[in-house]
Amino acid sequence: MLDVIGAGATATSSADWHIIWNNSPEAAVLQEQIGKIHDEGRARPAVQVQLATEFATSWNHQLMVLCQRNFQSYWRNPTYLMAKFALSIACGLLIGFTFFHTSDSLQGTQTKLFVCGITRSTTWLLTCLIVCLFGRCDLRRPLAAASDCVHRSSIHL
Amino acid sequence: MYNWTALVVSQLLVEIPWNILSSSFFFVCWYWTVGFASDRAGYTYLMYGIIFPLYYTTIAQAVAALAPTAVISALLFSALFAFVLTL
After folding, report:
1. Does pLDDT of A38 surpass 90?
2. Which residue of A has its CA nearest to B61?
3. Residue ranges covered by each domain of chain B
4. What ipTM is given for this predicted complex?
5. How remote is the C-alpha of B2 from its chain's centroid?
């Protein structure tokens, strides 16, 4: 076969195989097939290589999944909730019994108003404190920063 | 990876029912011991047991989000205490 095609330093070939192949019917059939494949490919629309958003799923679905995971994380680590409840009950009883059965006199009404005020502040302050004491701060903190931090916070979940 | 708005909304949605429950415990322990009138309990519960938790849940999240550490958030609370007084 090497002799026939004229391979090697000293061998010679009796025919120009390139021209023979180019003129052969097999080559014509092959060219036709390649042309057909090209035409078919060009008839299709361009391939979408880019996603419309940076997220793999819709916002609503993200919300549903995140809610589920949040509830699960509370369920698996109930210390945060139990502390919240214990604190609410203890504070309620403390304030309630400190101003136990306040009368409706002028002084008593003033005291009741005061009770409403400190109730608001204690609940608010203690909730904030508890949020941070249980490391929820760390979870929410990166939200204000760049999106790679959001990624970090989603790992926490 | 999530959209950060979805993350925050889910945290609020999950936190709010628990805070309403917690405030309800508070209300039950507090309202009648102080000796408030029972016929006004309904509206007071609406305000202190349902509306107020919605408020403090959102603002607690806001403060927690902008504070880098628990120590700084504790400092911020005293500054933002004015919001509570003027509510």
Report:
1. yes
2. A140
3. 4-86
4. 0.81
5. 25
